[in-house]
Amino acid sequence: xxxxxxxxxxxxxxxxxxxxxxxxxxxxxxxxxxxxxxxxxxxxxxxxxxxxxxxxxxxxxxxxxxxxxxxxxxxxxxxxxxxxxxxxxxxxxxxxxxxxxxxxxxxxxxxxxxxxxxxxxxxxxxxxxxxxxxxxxxxxxxxxxxxxxxxxxxxxxxxxxxxxxxxxxxxxxxxxxxxxxxxxxxxxxxxxx
Length: 193
Ligand SMILES: [Zn+2]
Prior knowledge:
Organism: Thiohalospira halophila DSM 15071
Number of helices: 6
Shape: globular
InterPro entries: Carbonic_anhydrase, Carbonic_anhydrase_sf
Family: Belongs to the beta-class carbonic anhydrase family.
Number of strands: 7
Bound molecules: zinc ion
CATH class: Alpha Beta
Protein name: Carbonic anhydrase
Strand content: 15-25%
Structural class: alpha/beta
GO molecular function, one term: zinc ion binding
CATH superfamily: Carbonic anhydrase
CATH topology: Beta-carbonic Anhydrase, Chain A
């Protein structure tokens, strides 16, 4: 068993010991909303948005991007579990701003090992072989921080499986101080129709 496994299981034993009455929570989110946000380890949506177990759906991926799979989750969130309001939350200092598709595919072509960020540029320092398959993936990187929020809100808004009455809000989370700031152009793009 790895150190991480030991630590996770020890923390879980403590959590389960004080689990209390939460075993009776209903499946649909009590507060009726969903958040799409980045997987960044510095973001804790339960804390930055004040969520308890059972409150809301939180969908996370690299960048908090409106990928097909993120939209799949949002559609389920509303259609089957009743959420009526959605937030798209990207953040400052996102790793997705540090590379583009060609860079990622090039790194993976050299090796599958962890690359190094040297002077703002990614460099592959691993042992090959790599694989060419990275060229076939849209990595959904971020070139324009606020623009990416607008783009994602718009993509969700315009999706044929998303009803026009759901408000979709766009926010930026600041990793340096924990603050959420609304991106008005994104919220405007996500206004109910
Ligand atoms: Zn991020």
